[in-house]
Amino acid sequence: MLRQASSQAQTGEWAVEAKDLVKDFGETKAVDGVSLAVPTGSIYGLLGPNGAGKTTTLRILLGIIDPSSGTRSVLGRSRPLDAAPEVGYLPEERGLYPAMHCRDAIAFMGALRGLSLSEGRRRADVLLRDHGLGEWARKPIRNLSKGMAQTVQLLGTIVHRPRLIVLDEPFAGLDAINQARLEELIRKEARNGVTVIFSTHVIAHAERLCERIAIVAKGKVVFEGAVDEARATLRPIVRLRTRSEGGPWRQAFPANARRENGLWVFELPESGPEPLLKALIDGGAGIETLAIERPGLHDAFVAIAGDKAAAEMVEGAPQ
Amino acid sequence: MRHLLRSAFVIGRRDFTSTVFSKAFIFFLIGPLFPVLLGGVFGGIGARVASQAEQPRVAVVASHPDYARLESARSQLHEALDDRPVVDLVEVAPEGDVQRQTQALLASKERSVVAVLTGGLANPHLTGSIEPDGMIAGQMNLLLSAARATPAETASVQVTPTERSTGSVNRSRSITAQAGQFLLFFLTLILGTMTLSQLIEEKSNKVIEVLAAAVPIEAIFLGKLFAMLVTSIVGIAVWTLAGAAAVSALSAGGTSILASPAVGTAPFMVLCVLYFGMNYLLLGSVFLSIGAQASTAREVQVLSMPVTFAQVLIFGFAAISIGAPDTPLAILGAVFPLSSPLVMVARAAERPELWPHLLALGWQALWVGLIVVASARLFRRTVLKSGPVRRSWWRRAAA
Questions:
Q1: DSSP A140
Q2: Does the distance separating the beta carbons of A24 and B389 come in below 8 Å?
Q3: ipTM greater than 0.95, yes or no?
Q4: Measuring CA to CA, which residue among A65, A83, A91 is closest to residue A14?
Q5: Does any domain span residue B5?
Q6: What digits encode the pLDDT tens for the residues B144-157?
Q7: Taking Cα atoms as reference points, which of B173, B101, B91 lies closest to residue B349?
Q8: Which domain holds residue B231?
C-alpha cells in the first residue's frame, strides 16, 4: 500500500502522505507509527475514539508540531508550512478573536494563507451571504451563537480556496441542520477537486462522506483503505425466517449461526448465496423472509478496532 | 524569508489595529498624565513640607541695625547657594532678662525656632537644640562674619565668562547621556512588560492553533513585537506632541541645560529613536518569550515583577557608562545585548564617532533575530510540545 502511495505521490496523486509517524509526550506515545496516504481530490476520514491520536496526527501533518520520528508530506512538500497557502484547517478547539467582525475574521484567516485583505473581505461577504449570515458580516464574533461562530471559522478555512482542507471534529457542537449543511459543503469542495481530510468519532459521517478512511486506535492506524475495503473485512450477514424448525438444510449454515428474535442470523458462507438457497429450497425449509445485508462501517469498525473502541465511539458521539 | 515577513506583517497588522482602535488605547494614551498630575500635586505638597522642614528658624535677639546686617548677609548667602535652604532669621527685640527671653522663645509654639542668637554682632551667642559644628551653627558663623565685615573687607571676584570649557561641556553631555538613557529606560519599562501578555489572548481564545498551522511561530513573535513597537511609537508621538505643547505653553528654556550631544543634535535624535526600537525589540522579545510560557493572566502578573526588576538592574548596569564611555565596563555594557542600546545612546551624547553606532545597531539587530528564533523554538518545544522528546541529563543518568 505505502509503496504504491510513494509512486502515486510522485505523480501528484497523493495530497498527503505520512510514514511511520511517532509522537511521544514524555512517557505517553500519542502517535505510534502512523502511516497513511490520502488521494488527491478525495474525502478522507480519520476515525477513532477520543484520545486515539487523531488530533495529534493532524497537527503533525499540518506542521503545527514536529513528530518525534517519521516523515510526512503535504501537497508534495516535506515541510507542511510551505504548503500552508494551499491548505485550510479547522482545529478541534475553535479559535476566533471575539472583538473581530465576522468578515474581518474570515479575511484575516485568508490573509494568514496569503490572500489579500481586500479580496478576503470581498469573498467573506459572499460566503457569509451564501451561508445565511450576511447580516452578521459587520458584527463582532462575540455576538454570535456557538454554531454561527463555528460556521464563520469554517468559512475562514475555505476563503482562500485551498487545495487541501483539514477539519478536526468538524461536526462536534453542530445541530442536525448545520451538520447536513457541513456535509454538503464537504461534498461540494470535493466535487471541485479539493482534498478533504476530517477526523471524527461519529462513524455515520464517515460512512456517508468518505471514500477512504483510516481507523486509529491507541495511536496506531489499525486499518487504512477504502470504506468498501473496510466493510469487505466482514462477510455479508444473512437474516432468515423459515416455517420449518429443522431439517437437512441446517447443514448449509455456518457453525456460529444464532437465533435472534425468531430469525437465523449468520455470516454468508464463502461459497456464496447460491448453495445456501439451493439447500434451503431442496431441504423444504419454507423461506418466509431472507435478507443478505452488506455489513455497515460500524460493524467493520467493531471487527477492526474492537468492541471497546467502538463503545467509546458511540459514547463519545454528541449527536 | 518573504513568507516569514509577510506573515509577520499580517499578524502585526491585526494586533496593531485591534490595539489602537480599542477603547483601552485611550486610557493607554492618557496613562502618563496620571503620574504627571500626581507628581505635580504631591511634589507641590512635598516641596512645601520640605521647605518648612529644611529651613530652620533662628530668633535673633538684637538691635535692629544688627539684625538688618545679618538679614542682608543671609540674602546674599541664599542667592549664592541658588535657593538651597539657608537658616531663616526672625527679629526679636531684646527684653530685660535675656536668659528668660531665650527660654521663652525656644518654648514658643508660635515662633517655632530651633535656636536663639543673643549678644548682637559684637558678642554673639547661640542657644538651642543644635550641634556646635552642625549646619545651623556653621551657617550662622558665615552670616555673622559677613555681617561684621566692613565693605572694604568684602571680597568681590572678577568674572570673565567664556562660551564653554571642557569641564562644563563634559558635565552637560553627561546630563544629556543620563537623560537619553532614562528616557529609553522609562519608555521601555512602560511598554516592555506589556509584551509579556501578548500571547495570552491567542492562547485563551485558541487562535494560536489557527496561527501555528498557517504561519511560522517566528512570524507570530515578530509580528507581535513590531505591532507593539509601532503602537508604542504612536503613543510616544502623542505624548511628545502633548508634552511639547505643554512645555511651550507653560515654560521656556526647560531643556537648555542639555548640551548639544557629541554626535550632533539631529543624528542623536535619530539614534535615540533607533536605540529605543532596539531596546524595545531586545527586551520585548525576551519578555514575549517568557510570557509565552504563561497560560493565564495571573501567571503573567506574577512574572511582571521580576521582569521589571531585571530591567532596573540592566538600567543600573548601563548607567555605569555615563561619563566614562571608553572604560572596559562601558564597553562590556555595549557588547551585552540587553544593555547595549542604553549604553550606546549615552555614548552618542558623549563621543562624536558614528561608526560604533552602526556596529552596535547591527549587533543588536542580530540579537533580536537570535532571541526571536530561540523563543519560537522554546515555544514550539514547551508549549506546543513539538519535536522529539529530549530527556534531561539527570533523567538520562537515572536511566
A1: B
A2: yes
A3: no
A4: A83
A5: no
A6: 888 887 766 666 77
A7: B173
A8: 168-244+257-389
